[in-house]
Structure formats: C-alpha cells, structure tokens
Amino acid sequence: MKFAYLLAVSVVCVAQVTPAAIGKSPASDWLTYNGDYAATRHSSLSQITPANAKSLVAKWVFHVVGAKKLEASPIVYDGLMYVSNTNELYALDARNGRKVWYYRAAGAKGTRVNRGTAILGDKVYFVTSDCHLIALNRMTGNLVFDVEYASFAGGYTTSIAPLAVKNGILVGVAGGGSGQRGFVASINGDTGKEMWRFWTVPAKGEPGSETWGGFPAEMGGAPTWTTGSYDAALNTVYWPTGNPWPDFYGGRRPGDNLYSDSVVALDADTGKLKWHFQFTPHDVWDWDANENLVLLDAVFRGRPRKLLVQANRNGFYYVLDRVTGEFLHARPFVKKLDWTSGLDDKGRPRVIESKIPTPAGTKVCPSVRGASNWMSPSYNPATGLLYVVTLEQCDIIVASAKEPVPASGFRGTGNEGIPTEPGKFYLRALDVLSGELKWEYPMPGPGVMWAGTVSTAGGVVFSGDDDGNLVAVDARTGKDLWHFSMGHNLFASPVTYMVDGKQYVSIAAESAVFTFGLF
Fold first, then answer.
1. In a domain? residue 411
2. pTM here?
3. Considering 122, 256, 286, 465, which one is annotated as catalytic?
4. Is 286 marked active-site?
C-alpha cells in the first residue's frame, strides 16, 4: 500500500507543461508541432554546426508496427518523445528510442494519417481519424478523456496536430475535397468541454455568406487541417483555411467564397473573428492556404511591424501586418506561375481567364499540389531567411462540366490535376521581408517527398529530400553538409532537441522514427 501511495504521488507531482514554456520553446524540448507558437521551427540549440555536421550518425531507430506513411513531427519534453500514428500514440525514451508506453484508440473509425500531438500540464493530446480528441496522462498513457468534436458519420475526418493555447486545445477538420464545412474549435484541456467554435464558412445571413451566391454553407469546405499560430501578447490565434468545395468547379458558388483559402485571426478566448485575409478568392485550382503561418517582429519599410508571412500554395510569398491583417507585400517564389498577371495593392490576384479550369482541361502553373504545401518551413532570425520546400510543376486541370453531385458524406469530386512533367523540389531560402531568393538546394528524385524543415542556432538547416535522405545544409549558403538515407519516402518535418547535454535530430519516415546525433 505504501509503494502504491508513493507511485500515485509521483504521478500527481509530475512537472507541468505551461503555455509560457511552450512560448519559449524550442530549446532542449520541442513542445508544439511547429516548435513554438510563432511557427518558426527554429531551435536555439547550437551543438551541431556546419563544421561538425559531417560527424552526425544514427543513434536509434524505432519501428512503428503497421505504419505506412508517418507524417508526424514528434513532441519532446523532459526526456520523453511522443510520436503519433493513425489512431495511436507512442511515448519513447528520447535518449534511446525505448518504448515507455503505447495507446491505441480502440474502435476509432477511419485510417487517416496523423500529424502530431499537443502537450499541456500533465497531459498529451492527439486526434483520431474520426474526430475524437484524446487526452492521456503523459507519464503513464492512461486515458483522461475522449471527446468527439465532429461527426464521422457526417463525413468529417481529421489528421491535425492540435495546438495548446492557454487552457484550450485547438483542433480542426479535413474536408476540402469532400465538402464538409470547416471550423476551428477550442476544447478545455482539463474537462474536454468545448469552449468555442469558429466556422470558416458563414451561415446564411452572417457576414461573408453573401460571397457564396446562395451555395449551402454546410457543403462549402474551407477545412482547417493544419496547425495554426498564436501571439500571446495580442491574444490572437492565426489559422490557415483550405479550399472551397467543389475543388475545380465554381459555377454554383459565385463570389469570393469566404473564408476559404484565407488566414483568419481569432480572439483566443472567444474564437471571435478579428480580421481575415484571403489569398485566392473563388479558388478553382485547389490551392488551399493550409501552409504554415510564421510570425515575426521586424522593421518593415522603415517602420517596426508585427508581421505574418506565408509561402502560399498559389505560388506567392505574402507579408501581412498581423495586428490588422493589412496586405504589405507579395512576390512569386516559384518560376512557373502563370495563372495571374499579378496582385493589386490590396493583394488581390488579377486572374487570367484562360487559366480557369474547363471540362476540356487547362494547363496551369503551379500544379494542384501547389508551389508549397503543408510541409513546414522554418525561419532563422540570425540569417533573416525563411527556408521553404518548393515544388516547380504545372498541371492540366480538368473541371467538371457541372457541379458534382455529393455522394454520402460529400466525398470527393473525382477531379484532379494531371502533371505535364515530373515535378522538381527545391529547398529555397527566401529573404523573410522581401521574399527574394537567396539560395536554393535542388532535390533529385521523383517528385514525391513532402518533408519540411527545421532551423538551428548552430547555423544548420535540416530537411528531408526527394531521395529519402535526411539532409543538413548550411543555413547561410545552402551548402550540402551531410545526408543519411533512410530507404523511405519522407512525409514529415524534422525536429531537434537535447537530452543529457547532447543535441539530437529526429524525423519520421514511412514506418519508423530515425534519430541522429554527433559521433
């Protein structure tokens, strides 16, 4: 009995992960999907440098049984690593990859990939494919709560890495290609009770609903399947939204289709909309805006500004004022961009009519996969560079002759882009204020990778390449420093952390987590 009592006390007294700690991450720990609330994915660790990166070696590999396409970025805290797969979560010893505990959501429906976890207090959180938020004791893996926040029977699914903000766990949904009405919800991290919900397609009569031409809100799409950013000083959550539905046919939804393909700035306490900016009004190319929103403070055109930047799927790099949502600057970051003649002074594209998809097929650049996508960029304030994995590719997009008839759950339209040539990926370093290309690292391979990046104070950028390698390049020059082949295609973004005074770099491959350190 005495032993049981001491064990219980040790569990109760486990260190608490606070929002303040998340805001200071990443250092030794990696406490949220994008490393910090600003989504910079930049670590203060400096043990690995351009001078010693060639000495990196594999330290451990953990095989995830049954995994086919791991996309998660691990969370690391106090020597424990949390890695998610479809409907399951592993806790590993971050020093050696030893399994500490494992949780499987029995009865979960659907098999969507999972992109990661959130951590807050003494709990770790992840979502199941059928839109349940699961809260577990982070030390034991014991279930704290399991709440459904969207209906799988109604067509909703999800793959998102949640975001812990204050006492809420923020979640979103998929559905850009299947018509579910998107939303962001904040769920109390202790009780599982929903605190607020923001719908990304306004209901009839609400502001913005006039931009849909009477199209039903419940079929509008604008999903929220990637993790947002947060500014604690402004008490504002910034969330990227997906494309409207149907993907390639806009005949029944005339207008801009708010708030699809946008960033929405929400009050963190209430979910109330503060402002929005739409990157691609009336999207008929499937160019969602679910790419990471990076927050930084800088002098822009002679004036101190709180900025938000994004390398958008439509091929433009955007700089916005994150206090007001004002459009400040944009420029293409891909060479193959032909759907618009440019943007006006408000950031609105001047669409070339001949580039709107037709039933006969229309060649458009960039491709349906986009100039960028959900793979994470990173920002190093010392270099002033944003590191973005970029795809140069064009598609022939075939649009429906009429609005597709929704199947059960509105699943899909059957339309997609047909590549006109093999795509080529580049890791590009952009000046964070101008979007000017400073260097690029070409990636050989078949054009199938989806790996993101992580930047470090040591002056190294890590990314996956198109041949299944984890690569290290010099942050200032793009010089190739080191690579390691994992024998898998890569669909995840790496992270870095420190345990016992040693810096590690981890990345998930198709079916295993690989971790590296200095020899």
1. yes
2. 0.95
3. 286
4. yes
